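# nightly structure sweep
# worker-07 picked up a monomer target from the shared queue
# config: single-sequence mode, recycle default, output format = structure tokens
# input follows
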Amino acid sequence: MNFVILLAAGESRRTGKINKVFYKIKGKPLIFYTILAFEKHPKIKKIILVARRKDFKKTAFLIKKYRFRKIAVIIEGGKERQDSSYCGLGAAEVLGAKKGDLILFHNVSNPLISQKEIFDVIKEGKRYGAALLGQLLKDTLKKVKKNFVKKTIPRQNLWLAQTPQVIEYSLAKKAFKKAQFHATDDVSLVEKIGRKVKMTPCSYRNFKITTKEDLDIIKNLINNGK
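# output follows
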């Protein structure tokens, strides 16, 4: 069984006063597009939605309005992203997750994930135990201190990490329990305990919305059907 832990408990600090989860595009909130990608995917059984408590009522209304059937539960997120992921993992256990099942951790702010990309990362996650989507870095990378360039970092073999990030259930439990640091993504915890993680290429359309400018880009892509 494949579970999705959909992370929507962030504070959207870098988008100013805009709550990106409910940002309207073509009359629908951003979260609609993200949920829809997994709702219609044949390999996904259940979705666990991790949200801020103050957003529960609004989120539940949207689920009912758009008739999403795979949302199994809405739970409150933690202080940090990693805490929210761990809360979601606990919910998966309550819902019957067992060894061999796959857990897909996905940011609600990555709305343009394709059906093929979900298939691809599930396939690699099943084969290797842990996998993620990402893009090969295209731009030149500079290390800067006090606004001055200190070093140019070779971009060969450097990737941008995206989601979903897939971890086999028992491996995820082990990695999270052994974590002694706050990671900015989920598979970092698997790396930390010495397990391999498979990088799976995805489109540059699948990026995380962080700034107001990102919202404008996503809006244009969805409005133009790209």
